[in-house]
Amino acid sequence: MSVITPHPGSGPSRLFILRPVATTLLMVAILLAGMIGYHSLPVSAMPEVDYQTIQVVIL
Predict the structure, then answer these.
(1) How does pLDDT run across 10-56, given as a tens digit for each residue?
(2) How far is residue 32 from each of residues 17, 22, 23, 25, 28, measured CA to CA in Å?
(3) CA distance 48 to 13
(4) CA-CA-CA-CA torsion sign (34, 36, 42, 44)
(5) Predicted local confidence at residue 23, as pLDDT
(6) Which long-range contacts (CB under 8 A, 24 or more apart) does 37-42 make?
(7) Predicted confidence band at 7 (pLDDT cuts at 50, 70, 90)?
(8) Which pLDDT score, from 0 to 100, does residue 31 have?
(9) Domains of the chain: which residue ranges?
(10) Which of 10, 15, 31, 57 is the most exposed place for a label (fewest CB within 10 A)?
(11) How far apart are alpha carbons 24 and 21 in whole angstroms?
C-alpha cells in the first residue's frame, strides 16, 4: 500500500480528502464537544436585563 502525501502548495483541503476516516472522527469529536457545551450553558427563564431610560426635566 502506498501513502500519498499532499503537495506543498495543494492547500489544507487535500489532507482531509486523502484521510476520510480521520476527517469523520474529527467531525464527530467537534459535534460531541458542541453538544456537551450546548447542554452545559446556563438558561434562565427571566434573565436580568438593565433597561436604559431617558429622563427629561423641563423647568
Answers:
(1) 777 888 888 999 999 999 999 999 999 999 988 877 778 888 899 89
(2) 22, 15, 14, 11, 6
(3) 45
(4) positive
(5) 94
(6) none
(7) low
(8) 98
(9) 11-41
(10) 57
(11) 5
